[in-house]
Amino acid sequence: MMRFNDIKREAGFVFGHRQFKLTMLVVLLLSSISLWAGFAEMQEQQATIERLLEKDQVERDAVINHQSNYGMVAYYSFHLTYAPPTSLAFAAVGERDVFPWKHRIRMLALEGQIYESDTDNPELAFLGRFDFAFVTSVLLPLFIILLLYDLKAKEREARRFDLLNVTARNSHAIWTSRVIVTLVPLALAVLLPFVAFAVLNGAELVGIVKVCAIVIANIAMWSVIVLAIGAAKRFSQFSATHLASIMLGVWLMTTVVVPVTGHTIINALVDTPEGGDIVLIQREAVNGAWDKPVEETWSAFLKSHPQWTHYTEFDPKRDSSFNWKWYYAFQQVGDEKASELSQSYQASTLKKDEIASYIAWVSPSLLTQRLLSSAADTDVQAMVHYENSVRHFHASLRDFYYNRMFKAPAFSLESFEQLPQFTPQKLKDSQENTDEN
Amino acid sequence: MILRVANTICAEQWRYWLRTKVAATVLMLGAVLTLAALVVNAFHIEEAAHAREHLQHKAEERFKAQPDKHPHRMVHYGHYVFRAPTPLSVIEPGVDTYTGNAIFLEGHRQNSAMFAEQRQSAGLTRFSSLTPSFLALVLAPLFIILIGYGSVSREREAGTLTLLLSQGTSRSQLLLGKLLALAAASAVFLMPLLLACFYVAFSGESASLVALFSVSYAVYFLLWTVVVTACSALFEKSSASFTILIVIWMSACVLLPRLGSSVATNLAPSMGKLEADFKVEEKLRSLGDGHDVNDPAFKKLKQDLLAKYNVDSVDDLPVNFRGVVAQYSEQRQAEVLSEFAENRMQQELEQAHIARQFGWLSPTVAIRSISTVLAGTSLETHHRFLREAEALRLEFVQGLNKVHVEKLDYKLDMNRNASEEAADKAVVDASNWALLAEFKFEPEKSAVRISNANLYFLQLLFWVGITVLLLRIAVRRLNP
After folding, report:
1. What is the ipTM of this complex?
2. Which of A224, A269, A390, B374 has its Cβ near the most Cβ atoms within 10 Å?
3. How would you write A276-289 as a 3-class SS string?
4. Measured between alpha carbons, how far is B461 from B222 in angstroms, rounded to an integer?
């Protein structure tokens, strides 16, 4: 049994060390800096979205008022789509620096637009982000090792080990309480700044609790690893630093070797189509259509859009001087030709992510990182979800213009009140549950 | 005499390492990892080089194989360029996996590079990657620490240090011996890397540049062996030197590079491409739509041209006025686009420079900069790729516009939408597509890359100074 007195005595002992207090201060500082950096970056992203939204509206209104037929408006007006940072994104920037989180699209073939990326400075992405997820998944285990590796050995080397065991009412209690008074301040040093920033950023309670639980589980996991190595009979003759080397070896294996090996294996296992081929096929189809008989485009288009079968005829007087219907039809056909490849490209991204989620089970760091970015909606799933919402929006845009161009080509400004507007959607809860949690 | 004693101490240290399992395991692990990384990466780069060369070739062939067409259609048909990997990217892939390696070139637009490999990595390689440079710059120091943290303090703890010093071994002899031993151990990790460098030097990279590259890596390894040996000598207990060294490693190799990146993002936020696009559009709108000859922006152009050829209407011009307009507006557009693109690159470079200033705080950041700049996998070289792609874009688009001006009749051109037959007449011969130049990307000349890295050599030199100082303190303070 542990008693309050034991804990009090051990706390006094642990906090008596200058080194321990210094470590706590450093952890507190690192956690705060990482949170501030993520917070500032997400504020900037939010501000960027707001600026873009404003300009986007002005620009589109100008186009609509300037043009006099639907074909021209569809050609010249862009629509901003974006994935706003969630209220927890500051803690785990995740994939937001590699995947695009904003696109401006128009009614031309989508496959030519969706792979455009407006991502960050590649050199900074290469150096990596110093975010909270990094601090907890990569650095925190190292601190745990540093704090706990000589827990018993230190006493053994100071020849107090037997004395302590004999004088304590319960020899287990003394070590348990010492571990607790070491780890609880550590967890607090990491989590208190997080909670402060999360509240400041208006995060929901569920999310905050989730992140705290992940971090605490990570600390518990590493403590178990470290203590198990420290207590293993095999290593009982080893010096403290010798033990620490083994602990670092475990860190190295799980944090570095497992992910890179996993990466190599995944690349060998999952066949990814060349991204360039998607755009190439789409371009050939779209550009080739000009040289082909118009009927060829129509027959391909009508296969997927039979409702327009009787509306394909081109009348220069009614439809404006250029055959826009045909033009957008071959844009659609271009997308359809590339669609199989494009789908398998996305499927392979998801497949790789899925395999990575299994690999994460043997790497606590990877697991923590993945869970955190999943909680913050900055993981691959969320980014793919955004891509799909852009596809969805593009489809509704097509629907809007097809209805006008095919059915009622007389231009009216009022009809643009029904122009689809992009609204960002969060990953659905039902989907989130199927994630790796 | 000094050397002989040092050699004995070095040999003694090695005997100890080979006897204990930790050092031997670490050495093995390090060597295996480095070799694996080199092999995997070499295959990957080789494959990518072939694939991209092939794709480049195919793109050029397709362009030239297009049938007779309206020249402006070819402007929109566009072209692809691919960036071939540099020889040293076998060791330092740098920003390459983050940038995307293909750009689609077309009229009126500057597209960004597409399909960065990193998007396909499922987040597995965000902290670590199986690249020789990551192993050498981040993991090798940890291995050196694990092997060497106790090299002197162990002798002290065992009481043999007093013995050695009282037998007439000088402090500098002792430390030199320990240093030699650790340097030899770190050479186990360094050797495969140097061999790879040697190989690269024979595959088309400048020898002096490769030499500088490998010397920098060797210096970096030496820095760590000195720091580890000095700490081991300075601290009384092995556990203290171990803890301090791990903290140093954590800050230098893991923390500071990332901190630099985050500080740069927040200190000098860059305008995203989308946001810049709005500004570009605003400016472009004032230049007129190059597809529309009646745009008021081209009024002056028209008057000048009519005056030049002394005719009354564009129909009588000996050149195709639509082509003239296209040529003229493409040129002005390209100037605006380049202005903004240059701005953006400048901003990115400023951010990178802020992040690289952290080289004064961490030798790892310094050597990282040297490594990427020399290998031609830095931001600078990526920008060079973007500029060359843009130059090629403008060249072929304007070439096509020239064909439009000179080889396509204006009346046929204006009549092209009347019927399918009329459209078939408004074309030029496919032989004109041969104007597309071949694209073969090469990084900056080696002298340029070396001078780009000057500041980072200085940073490395600064660290050499610091460690020499540390070593002198260690020699002076070495007490049994």
Report:
1. 0.86
2. B374
3. HHHHHHHHHHHHHH
4. 12
Q: Which amino acid is at B240?
A: A
Q: What would the two tokens of residue B78 be?
A: 């566009």
What's A398's DSSP letter? H
Across the interface, whether the CB atoms of B266 and A102 are under 8 A apart is answered: no
Domain ranges of chain A: 4-32+133-268, 70-114+270-436
Instruction: Calculate the alpha carbon distances from A222 to A225, A361, B213, B254 in Å.
Output: 5, 14, 38, 19
Q: How far apart, in whole angstroms, are the C-alpha atoms of residue A388 and residue A384?
A: 6
Compute and round to an integer the Cα radius of gyration of chain B.
31
For residue B186, the one-letter residue type is S
pTM for this predicted structure = 0.87
Residue whose structure tokens are 């902290």: B127
- Pull the structure tokens for residue B310: 């002394």
How is A99-141 classified by DSSP, letter by letter?
S-SEEEE-SS-GGGTTT------HHHHHH----HHHIIIIIHH
Which chain A residues are closer than 8 Å to B273 by Cβ?
118
Question: What does the DSSP 8-state code read for residue A319?
Answer: S
- CA dihedral B48→B49→B55→B61, nearest 10 degrees, is -170
Average pLDDT over residues A139-152: 86
CB A71 within 8 A of CB A413: no
Which two structure tokens, joined as six digits, stand for A231?
A: 């207590």
Q: With beta carbons under 8 A apart, name residues in chain A contacting B261.
A: 124-125, 127-130
Lateral strand order in the sheet of B109-110:
B79-82, B102-106, B109-110
Q: What is the pLDDT of residues B219-250, one digit of tens each?
A: 999 999 999 999 999 988 888 888 889 889 98
The two tokens of residue A126 are 């290469």
Distance CA B110, CA A70 (A): 26
The pLDDT of residue A433 is above 50: no
Cα dist. A22→A18, A132, A186, B11, B157 in Å?
A: 6, 20, 11, 39, 26
| Residue of A23, A127, A296, A353 to mutate, interface with B, max B Cβ within 10 Å | A127
Select from B141, B142, B149, B139 the least CA-distant residue to B17. Answer: B149
* Nearest-5° Cα angle at B57, B52 to B60: 125
Q: Are B190 and B428 in contact (CB under 8 A)?
A: no
Find the closest chain B residue to A266 by CA distance: B121
Helix/strand/coil for B239:
helix
> From CA B228, how far away is CA A362, in angstroms rounded?
32
Residue A103 CA: distances (Å) to CA of A82, B136, B260, B277, B336: 6, 38, 28, 11, 22
Count CB pairs under 8 A between chains A and B.
Answer: 232
The C-alpha atoms of residue B87 and residue B446 are separated, in whole angstroms, by 12
